[in-house]
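Structure ticket #2291
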Amino acid sequence: MTSSGRARALVAGYCALLTMIIVGPLAGSGYLLLRDAVSTPRSFLTDSALGVGAAAPRAVPQDAVLAVLSPVIDGGILVKAILIVALWSAGYGAAVLARRLVSASTGAQLVAATLALWNPYVAERLLQGHWSLLAGYAALPWTALAAARIRTATSRTESGDDAGPGSRFGFIASLGGWAALTASFAAAGLTPTGSLLAAVIGLALVGRRAFLPAVALWIVTCAPWLTATALGSGAEPSDPAGVSAFAARAEPWLGTLGSLAGLGGIWNGEAVPASRTTPLALLGTLLLLGIVACGVRAVWALGRDGRALLVIAAVAIVLPALGATSWGLAAGEWLVVHVPGAGLLRDTQKYVALAMPAYALCAAAACRTVTVAARRVLANDPEASAAEGHPEIRDGRTGFRPAAILFILLLTLPLADLAWGVGGAVRPVHYPAGWQQVVDHIDAPGDIAVLPAGMFRRFPYSGTAPVLDPAPRILPNDVLQTGELRVRGYAVTGEGNRARTVEQALLEGAPATELAALGVGWILIERTTPGPLGASEKTLTTAELTYQDKDLALYRVPSPTLLDIATPAQRRTSAAAHLLWAALLLTGLIAAAVRPDRTGARRADREAAGNRVD
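Resolution: structure written out below.
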C-alpha cells in the first residue's frame, strides 16, 4: 500500500472509531426508539409511507424505503446501519474535503473529521432522534466536493485549458462530478430538510455554467416529497404556532447567536447533552470558534469555494438567530400560512448544519496556521543554533502533529458526554411481543385509531424521554394521528383533521358505528403509557375485542366505511417518484464508486502533497 493509501486508511479507520464511540450502544440488538426516532422490526407501504396520506409528507422517502426493505432486512438493523454509515460519511467526507481544498495532511484531516462528528449539532440531533436528518448532514461535504469538481472540469473544458487529450479528461471528470452530485443530492434527500441542505451547498459551488442543470437534477432527486405535496393529500397548512415553538434556543451563557455559532441551540431543551447546561457550553463554544477563526483567512484565500462556504456558514448562523427575534417570528408565521411547504423552515436550527463544511475546512487550515506560527517561534529562538538548520523546521514538522492532537482534545473534551450514545441516552429498546400479535390480528381493512390521545408516549421499556408512538410504523393499516405537538408551552396543531374528529369521538365515548362512518376499522389501546382516555370505555363496549395483554388491547370496529384519501393514480404516481429517487441514488453511487475521474483525484492529491507541511 502506498503512503497516500495508508493515510486514507488511517483517516477512514479513525472516523469509524469515532463513530462507534458515539453510537456504540446501538451495536447491540434492539430498536432505536427515542423522541422522533422510531424503528420497528417491519413497516408497511401505507398511504402515509408514500406521502399521500392525510398528514404532510415530512418522512418521505424515508418511510417508504424502510417499508420496502424491512421485509428483507430487519427495520431496526436498517435504521442503525443508515445512522452509522451517515456519521462515518460525515467525518470522512469532511476529511476528504480538507485534503482536496486546503491540501490538509493526515493530522489536519483528522481534525476536520473530529469537528464534523464531535459537535453539539450531532449530539442534539441524536438526542432528538433525527437519524435521517444526519444522512443529509453527512452528504454536505460530498456535495461540496462534487459541485466544485463539476465547476472546475466545466471551466477547463470551455476555456480550452485541457485542449487535446486533456479535454477528454475534463469531460470525464465532469461526468464523475455529476455522478457524485446525483448520489449526494439523492442521499441527502432521504428527508426533505436534508435535500434543502444539500441544494444550498451544491448550487452555491457548482458554478454559473452548470447551475441550471444542477437545479434540474436536484428537483428530480426531490421527486418523492415534491410529488406528494403536488398531489394534495388534504393536509392543512402548518400551524404558525410552530414557528415560535421550534425557534432556535439560547443555551446558558451563550445567547441565541452564540449557541448557533457553536453548532448548538436546538429548540428542545431536553434534547441536549448535560455538558451543554453547564459552563462547559461556553468553554466548548469558545474553543471551537477559536480553532475555526485560526483557519478563516486561509479558507477565504482559497477563492470561490472557500468564500462561498464561509458565506453560507455565516448566513446559516445569523438567519436562524434573527428568526428567533420577534420580527423574525412574525415573518416565519406569515410564511407558513401563505407559502406552501414553508413548514419545512420552522425548525431553523436544523440549517446550522450548513456551517459544518466551512468549519471543518477552517479547523484543518488552522493546523497550518499554528505550524507557521510555531516555525516562526523556533526560527527566532535565541537558543537555536541556526534557524535554517533546525531539524523540526527542516523536516517541516514544526508543531503540526502536536497541534492536531491538541485541537482534537479541545474539540472533544468539553463535549465528552457525546460518547457512548450521548451518555447512554441513545440505546436500543425491545418491543413487547404483543406488538407482533396485534399486527397478526389486523386482518381486515379500515384505518386504526389509537389511545391514549396524543402522538408521544412514555413506555416502561423506552426510558424516561418521550417517544413518538410506534403504531403508525409498526401496524399494517394507516394509523390516524392528529399531528398535534406540545413544545415549550406551545400547542402546535397538526394537519390530521379527520384524525382529530376520530380522537374527539373516542374521548367523548361515541358508539363504534360513528367511528365506522369515519373510516375506522380498528381501535388500539396502549395500556402502559400515560395519556387521556376520556369516556372511550363507552366506545369500546360497542366494539369487538380481538386481542389483549398487559401492554395492548385491539378492538375491531364492525363494517367500517372505506375512505380512500388517496386515489390509485396518486399511489402509482408517488410510487413511481420513489422508484425514480432510488434509481438516481443507486446509479449515482455506483458511477461515483467507479471513479471515472480517478486521474483528476490523483492529480489533486499530488498537488496537495506538494503543499503539505508535515
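Closing remark: The radius of gyration is 26 Å.
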